[in-house]
Amino acid sequence: GLTADDRHVYLGTYQETVTALEVQNGKIAWQVIIPGEVMSVSEPSNDTLIVRTNDNKLLALDINTGNVNWQSSHSTPALTLRGASRPVVFENRVYVGYDDGKLSAYNIENGYLVWEVRIMAPFGRSDIDRLIDIDGHIVVSDNFVYAVSYQGNLAAVDIKTGRIVWSRELSSYTGLAVDDVQIYVADDEGGVWAFDKNSGASVWKQEDLMRRQPSRPTVVGTNIVVCDYEGYLHWINTLDGSFVGRNKIGNQLQSPLESKFNRLYTYDKDSKFTVFESDFN
């Protein structure tokens, strides 16, 4: 987990620590020990940083001191995928997708559970068949939470009530991205999809990246970008799913990709950092 604001860079580690570094000089502002391996860290909001551990603990840290304001825990299935979706803070709530296929909303001030809904129920005889983790990126947009589970569903959930507005069968472990009109998802076989935000209807599917393990799509201008296991970036037009360009930037990329100010930021396993303009030059 790595995130930042205008004062600090916040770093979660496998060594069960969260550290805040001063943006201006890199000095440690504070460091706290967390009861578990840190799997993901939210964007800071309301003076709070939400940290998720490998055993599904959720902790709210004060961004000024590192003090734990509240802590919550969630049950963990016998077998899960390696990974954990990043908690998403929107207004006064925290939204989290869990390994048992549930999507939960918490009050950011006190950690009280506001609502919880199951995106997918486990089924099948073996533990592998019953994997339904929400490990990928979830998104809050236009009063809905969009989430997708492995061997499960893509769903739009009302942020106020927790009611599922629509859902459709889809399996993904990387999560999704949205723009003003569409949702973009890479499924577990390598197909890249676009769906209508309002209805969940399929708009297009790009199948030329099958078995290349594309990452979660990232919206950059009028394109989406995915990286694959060989270190290629693939730029795809959001209107029809056609390829716009392709870049080879080195070794295996570390995803998710990040898009800020109409630019794309990437880094690979050798810590090579690259910035692309929206026209992929």
Describe this structure in words.
The protein has 281 residues and is mostly beta strands. 0% of the residues lie in helices and 50% in strands. The strands form seven sheets. The chain has a four-stranded antiparallel β-sheet, with no helix packed on it. It is globular. The mean pLDDT is 84.
Quaternary structure type: single chain
Portion of residues in helices?
under 10%
Number of helices: 0
The pLDDT mean sits at 84
Strand percent estimate: over 45%
Low-confidence stretches: none
Structural class of the helix and strand makeup?
Answer: mainly beta
Kindly provide the radius of gyration, computed on alpha-carbon positions and rounded to a whole number of angstroms.
18 Å
Please trace the helix and strand order, writing H or E for each element: EEEEEEEEEEEEEEEEEEEEEEEEEEE
Strands of the widest sheet, in order across it, are 1-2-3-4
Report the biggest beta sheet as strand number plus sense, adding barrel if it closes.
Answer: 4 strands, antiparallel
Spatial shape: globular
Q: How many individual β-strands?
A: 27
Distance between the termini: 29 Å
